[in-house]
Specification:
This protein is mainly alpha-helical. The chain contains 12 helices and 2 strands, in the order H-H-H-H-E-E-H-H-H-H-H-H-H-H.
């Protein structure tokens, strides 16, 4: 029972981090009605900005306090992501208002490649370290109940708690604020939203800025765990099965989908993987998402689309 609970808890914490990345996809989809292929590139770009400014700022300002350096680097990286959001809206999305969804989809794909290349040119292509003080030593729970206790990584625990707090805050933002309701209106119909006075450009800048903040937090957490490298953008690919399971328009669905993926891939790797030579954790999420597309394409909490003719 102990190893099962250990695997289950590890899967839940990993799933919470998947949910955090998926949240950025849901935010953009709610505002534009299109899947944002640039989310992975945004996570990488934000992590690179955080990692490099944490090194550059102490050298420029002549101080050696790492906590202050991290705080300033996070603030500067957030400003950078807001500038990126403004530039995306001004130079790209504002030119594509009322265009077909596939046009917006291709635009986000182009943005992804641009951010990957621009990030490499601006920050370099080495592997960088982010140290925000998350404890990396393990802890053992229920030692009196299970032999040896249940191993728990403190860094994963703190990261999962941060992700959960951010998800909860954004859920309230969408449900309780006028801006959140405006985002849903824009997603339903761009022209109708404009006709009642909702400023489409302003809404898109806000949602891309929020998605940039989410990408920054996700990039810092994953960068702290794995190091900041260009393969980090591949982590965002796990967010695609998450939103397929939870639904492209549901913030709570992103959470539930992330937990299902996280727990499912960990348990399958431990208990089924040995019979298939391992590696199930790599493709489990995509096979599960494919099954959902065949049975319930709108996801667990997504809105079912009914076309009337």
């Amino acid at each position: 029972m102990g190893p099962f609970l250990e695997t289950l808890i590890g899967g839940l914490m990993t799933g919470m981090l998947y949910s955090l990345v998926a949240l950025g996809l849901v935010l953009i989809y709610k505002a534009s009605g299109v899947f944002n292929f640039a989310q992975g590139a945004m996570v990488l770009f934000a992590a690179l900005a955080m990692a490099r400014f944490a090194v550059w700022l102490p050298a420029w300002l002549h101080f050696d306090n790492q906590i202050l350096a991290n705080a300033l680097a996070f603030a500067v990286a957030m400003v950078v992501m807001i500038v990126v959001a403004w530039a995306i809206e001004r130079l790209c999305l504002s030119k594509l208002v009322n265009q077909e969804s596939v046009t917006l989809l291709m635009a986000t794909l182009g943005i992804a490649y641009f951010l990957d290349g621009f990030g490499q040119a601006l920050f370099g292509n080495d592997i960088y370290k982010i140290d925000v003080g998350l404890p990396k030593d393990p802890m053992f729970l229920f030692e009196g109940v299970f032999p040896g206790g249940i191993l728990l990584n403190k860094e994963d625990l703190y990261a999962a708690l941060i992700a959960a707090a951010l998800v909860a805050g954004l859920t309230l933002f969408f449900q309780k604020t006028a801006t959140g309701r405006a985002l849903r209106a824009v997603a339903d119909d761009h022209q109708a939203a404009q006709s009642i006075g909702i400023p489409l450009g302003k809404i898109w800048v806000i949602v891309w800025s929020v998605a940039g903040f989410v990408a920054l937090v996700a990039g810092v957490i994953w960068g702290s765990k794995l190091g900041v490298q260009f393969s980090l953008s591949q982590v965002a690919l796990k967010a695609l099965p998450v939103v397929i399971l939870g639904g492209f328009t549901s913030v709570p669905g992103a959470v539930i989908g992330g937990l299902i993926i996280g727990v499912g891939e960990k348990l399958s790797e431990v208990y089924i993987g040995p019979y298939f030579g391992g590696g199930i954790e790599i493709w489990f999420a995509y096979v599960l998402a494919l099954g959902f597309l065949l049975v319930r394409p709108q996801g667990l909490f997504g809105e079912k689309i009914i076309d009337r003719v």
